[in-house]
Amino acid sequence: MTRAESKRSAPPPGADVDFVQLLTPDGERVTHPDYSVDFDADELRGLYRDLVTVRKLDAEATALQRQGELGIWASLLGQEAAQVGSGRALRPQDMAFPTYREHGVLYCRGIDPIMPLGLFRGVDQGGWDPIANKFGIYTIVIGAQTLHATGYAMGINKDGKVGTDEGEAVIAYFGDGATSQGDVNESFIFASVYNAPVVFFCQNNQYAISEPLQRQTRVPLYQRASGFGFPGVRVDGNDVLASYAVTRAALDNARHGQGPTLIEAYTYRMGAHTTSDDPTRYRVASEVEEWQAKDPIARVRKLLEREGLADDEFFASVDADARTEAVKLRERVLALPDPDPTEMFANVYPNGSHEIDAQREQFAAYHASFAHEGGH
Amino acid sequence: MTRAESKRSAPPPGADVDFVQLLTPDGERVTHPDYSVDFDADELRGLYRDLVTVRKLDAEATALQRQGELGIWASLLGQEAAQVGSGRALRPQDMAFPTYREHGVLYCRGIDPIMPLGLFRGVDQGGWDPIANKFGIYTIVIGAQTLHATGYAMGINKDGKVGTDEGEAVIAYFGDGATSQGDVNESFIFASVYNAPVVFFCQNNQYAISEPLQRQTRVPLYQRASGFGFPGVRVDGNDVLASYAVTRAALDNARHGQGPTLIEAYTYRMGAHTTSDDPTRYRVASEVEEWQAKDPIARVRKLLEREGLADDEFFASVDADARTEAVKLRERVLALPDPDPTEMFANVYPNGSHEIDAQREQFAAYHASFAHEGGH
Amino acid sequence: MADTLTIGKALNLGLRRAMEDDPKVVLMGEDIGKLGGVFRITDGLQKDFGEDRVIDTPLAESGIVGTAIGLALRGYRPVVEIQFDGFVYPAYDQIVCQVAKMHFRSRGKVSLPIVIRIPFGGGIGAVEHHSESPEAYFAHTAGLKVVACSNPSDAYWMIQQAIASDDPIVFFEPKRRYWEKGPVDTDSAPFALHESVVTRPGSDVTVLAYGPMVRTALDAATAAEEDGRSLEVIDLRTLSPLDMVPVYESVRRTGRAIVVHEAPGNLGLGAELAARITEECFYSLEAPVLRVTGYDTPYPAARLEEEYLPDLDRVLDGVDRSFGW
Amino acid sequence: MADTLTIGKALNLGLRRAMEDDPKVVLMGEDIGKLGGVFRITDGLQKDFGEDRVIDTPLAESGIVGTAIGLALRGYRPVVEIQFDGFVYPAYDQIVCQVAKMHFRSRGKVSLPIVIRIPFGGGIGAVEHHSESPEAYFAHTAGLKVVACSNPSDAYWMIQQAIASDDPIVFFEPKRRYWEKGPVDTDSAPFALHESVVTRPGSDVTVLAYGPMVRTALDAATAAEEDGRSLEVIDLRTLSPLDMVPVYESVRRTGRAIVVHEAPGNLGLGAELAARITEECFYSLEAPVLRVTGYDTPYPAARLEEEYLPDLDRVLDGVDRSFGW
Ligand SMILES: Cc1ncc(C[n+]2csc(CCOP(=O)(O)OP(=O)(O)O)c2C)c(N)n1
Ligand SMILES: Cc1ncc(C[n+]2csc(CCOP(=O)(O)OP(=O)(O)O)c2C)c(N)n1
Ligand SMILES: [Mg+2]
Ligand SMILES: [Mg+2]
Questions:
Q1: Is residue B128 pLDDT above 60, yes or no?
Q2: Angle CA(B110)–CA(B115)–CA(B117) in degrees, nearest 5?
Q3: pTM
Q4: Which residue in C27, C241, D140, D162 has the fewest CB atoms around it within 10 Å?
Q5: Is the CB of B209 inside a 6 Å radius of any atom of ligand 2?
Q6: What is the four-CA torsion angle of B361, B364, B367, B368, rounded to 10 degrees?
């Protein structure tokens, strides 16, 4: 490849061309040569319900943070389709490794949405069983989980659990910013070399906190894959149908022994990076408005309306149910007990440690001394 | 790109097709649409002299190690053309960041070949001035230097030293194994994002110690670049003319502001990884023999002979001169003084440290106590 | 000129002044440009000095430090911001093997005048990896110098001194104290960079602290005064090399020493200080040097951090224990 | 059955036995397959257990440890070989933030039974990065256990115990002693994994060592005997958690302690040991705990390493200094 060719073949990283789309922002279905979905009306309504629910729960969490009930919250606003589409594409036997933002995927796995809230409230650091839930603990260190996903997938190969419809696959979530980390690139290498059944699902929401995509790459991210020897595909991440179709195909390829795929879900972070962030410092309102027009939920609603698959009553009931779920979530968050202080000495080591035991005892004795003195 | 396409477009990583070649193993010149060289007879003879000399000096170092005069030696045997070609392609203002094997590049920079031998003898850890020599200190931690090269190149941009023929460029050397390190991939990202004038020169000698290329990649390494947004090119690393042409073009592109290039010099490590290694444990003799036929020096000799540019007397004198240089090198290695023990307390900090000073004094006092006692 | 500034603002002004003084000073890090960093320490600097000197980098800490090395070799003086303490580890190899050793390996031919700024410590109610105290990892590394500031005046001056120094320096900032105010004389630096300082004189026991724990130690000293105990508080300021002169002088007088830090006790700075003090002041000590530190557990969830972190009461308890000997 | 084995061969047999005992044990690392590792510790294992259980990995330490975590989550028991001490740092983030914390973060729901083998220390005449002693970096990290073997019997048994343990363990091997021989009873393990052991009883001074320095300490004890001094040598074996019981018992008897290690003294294990011993044995100590260690410089060029490394004479000098108090 000469330089001129290379330049030509490289659209700017931020252009939303070149992606798989099955549902336009106007709610029109379009076809794609390689990908399609085959949802009946119930399933389409189900996806709509998922989208509305995860958005509502997310908004509730944001509200809880504003009211001081959570320490911080990382909102998925705008990324619902990428998460619901890919989350629903997972089969029960599949394993997911999330970042800290995959509340929608978690919901689609059938996991109680309260599960990650302890972490954001500050009462624990996740604390769930990643294996029982087939959903890893939220990972804050950028990119680290992509290697865990790859190793887990290498284990699937070792277990011989590939090659059939019952084969297992892994999905590793990460952001556009994460693609710059050594770990993510190393995970591409290990996955490729061992032909591991792992799908790398990059939600390109255009920002890593304040840094726009251009600080991480000058070519589209999905193109990264081919240099590592596996396919990359860009999907309209605000299109739940395309996100589903592309992820399903990649996971099924993986479970059948065809190795890894990189999916770049082209989307947009509509809110702040987290509740601690102030995006007005680094991006203009007009950009956000532009993306507003591509809203992942509105387009499904338009589809359902256009095709007469749902009526006002349905939409109202979905909203009402989501509200109910949100209220329930709120109540349960408020009821989350603070951990017992000695909890911090628990689970440092599977086999324990006499040093930690001694420190726990000192700690208890120290606190008992206050009780004795009647406060200090 | 669909999976099928991706598979098709991916020749196995080890195929020596697809590369830029200007001189065949039989010493025939061939043309390439994008690359050519314009050497006169003197220059061609000069390249031959370089190749023979660096091989001879290398063999001398190996012998010195066998005789216990060096602690270890990392031989460049087989990689002379990649090193002489790229080394001669550097312009005086360019900066090189080597691994631990770039003795041939060092030689072509006009640096005294004794310079790195202190490191291998164990009397220092390099100890040269990378800036004055425009040649970085040998780096043993795999891949680390590629980031240094990229940062240095970012500095060239900041200094405005790009865009003309006098522009500066950087070359970063690394091996096939190194391409798996996070650092190398991060250096691709920084170089691409900042359009840094750096050429990534990967000597794919087919092995990382015992591990064949297949443990690092399943597609050719030069393809890695395009996913990062810059061109990659594979060159016959046993062809000094092609190595020169491709490197010169990439460096000149860089100095003119066109950003990074990845060059994969396809070659073979004819010897052991280092003198501590035993390659018979992991590779077969027939493979080595196959590569013997592609020897980088023999083909230049054939060219010179075929085109009548050199006679037996020339070849004999080159050999004799190389031998003389080797003997001189040996003598100087043997004369390399052991460092004074207090040297280890020197240069820990540019501004010094009272702690180190105190330890140096204790050390001196401790040793003085033996002198006093008359030995212990 | 004397101003009242927060630590955060003092750092910001110190960086600004360093950039004005030397055009080779460049800042690198994640989100340090338009955003001004997540703690706003670089607020306004990109606007005034341009993208070429205040560089928003790709999200890759090894890349940041590794390219900073290259820039330093090219004659620049990079000041790297690590966004939070817990995110420095991807850069650990470049820091420990390259930054720390380059001067030594080159036999003094080149220096790497790099400053690595790390907001450190807990107490801000954050999620995991945002409240770590990794200073011992760096202080144990030969070839690095390590400092920690605790107040606005030191923040303002030490950052400038660190940038002006040719040594590679890991610069710890007391994250949870960023908003605390204090006087800053912007005309002249009160102390040298690698100097420990008696911040509050006292006669009964020496309390050694650095970074965020200096305030805690001072509060404890005030509280102890009411109980009739006089605590001498030393702000270490330099963690490597340690400046033991004022420490020994103090402990010889008081006969007792307490080291306070947030990092886990096991192999924390307190261990080294205890070992050195004991060796040097063996016959002066009335009690062993005691340590009041974080526990040897991972940093716990935010709702437990008050229990994990040394506070005024735990410092006083340490004092009591020392006197109980 | 009692055999005479080198440490290297004992490790090899221990690994083999662990793989036979549990099919979930997999080995990962660079060049551990056909080559058997650069020190041949895995010699023959790939041939006998296949490429699926003895995995030559890409050249990327973070990748090795990161994928080992995934394999552990999948139910495997990965044993990772880091080729040399100086090459563990690219994996530091995965070790410190992930391996060390996963059990804690999951509130005990999952364990990561990973063993990270690191040949450590100097004395083999190598180039830079091949002679490091990074144990303090790991011992300071809550959530990791750290051990070091010093003789063939421990090599054989400790590697098996470490693999069988559900704790994540950093396993240090005394590189320059790989070729030293000693008896191994392959029927039953003489000690538990996290136990310190009095290797040579004595009455005048306690010498604490681990890994390659145990041999040095024992040699010093033999030499000291001629001078009429009785050194008690304790092989720490476990560096985190420390097993202080035999240490305190010994120091209370001898009144003197010397810690010996190759790592730089500043914030090395000696600091922690000195701090603890002083706190616990304050009234028994006749002299401060002294340290005989590497200097606080980068590891020097090979021709200087004999000067850098503690040797018999420096241990005896430490003993002299202790008695000089
Ligand atoms: C190793 C590391 N460095 C820095 C951070 C701080 N940080 C948290 S989120 C974030 C940006 C991540 O961006 P991206 O990968 O695009 O994911 P997004 O948050 O947009 O979903 C940064 C820099 C971190 N968590 N880990
Ligand atoms: C970070 C790191 N890991 C491991 C090593 C040990 N090591 C030295 S050379 C080498 C193989 C390098 O292979 P390659 O990059 O292909 O370069 P070559 O030696 O073939 O020129 C390894 C694994 C190292 N030096 N640094
Ligand atoms: Mg993002
Ligand atoms: Mg190689």
A1: yes
A2: 135
A3: 0.97
A4: C241
A5: yes
A6: -100
Query: Two tokens at C292?
Result: 């009041």
What pLDDT sits at residue A12? Answer: 58
Nearest to B81 by CA among B235, B283, B311: B235
> Which atom of ligand 2 is found nearest the CA of D59?
23
The H-or-E segment that residue D213 falls in is helix D213-226
Instruction: Note whether C267 contacts D136, CB cutoff 8 Å.
Output: yes
pLDDT tier for residue A373 given thresholds of 50, 70 and 90: low
d(CA D181, CA D7) in angstroms, rounded, equals: 6
Query: Among all ligands shown, which has an atom nearest to the Cα of D30?
Result: 2
Task: Give C135-165 pLDDT, tens digit per residue.
Answer: 999 999 999 999 999 999 999 999 999 999 9
Peptide bond into C310 cis (omega under 30): no
Active site residue B269: yes
Contact A182/C at CB under 8 A: yes
* Nearest chain C alpha carbon to B127: C106
Q: Is the preceding peptide bond at C241 cis, omega within 30 degrees of 0?
A: yes
**Given an 8 Å threshold on Cβ–Cβ distance, is D58 in contact with B216?**
yes
The strand pairing partners of A95, in sequence order, are: A170
Number of the ligand 1 atom closest to the C-alpha atom of A141: 26
Q: What is the pLDDT of residue B6?
A: 41
Beta bridge partners, B264, equal B202, B234
Element (H, E) at A367: helix A354-373
- What structural domains and CATH numbers belong to chain D? 3-184 (3.40.50.970), 197-323 (3.40.50.920)
Interior/surface letters D138-168, b for 16+ CB within 10 angstroms, e for the rest: bbbbbbbbbbbbbbbbbbbbbbbbbbebbbb
In the block, which residue shows the tokens 């940041």? C64
> How close B99 comes to chain A (CA, Å)?
19
Q: What is the pLDDT of residues A17-55, one digit of tens each?
A: 689 999 999 999 999 999 999 999 999 999 999 999 999
Could you tell me the two tokens for B51? 């190749």
Rounded average pLDDT over B148-160: 98
How many Å apart are CA C127 and CA A117, to the nearest integer?
A: 11
Which helix (H) or strand (E) segment is C153 a member of? Answer: helix C152-164
CB contact under 8 A, B185 and A182: yes
The residues pairing with B289 across neighbouring beta strands, listed in sequence order, are: none
Report pLDDT for A3.
38
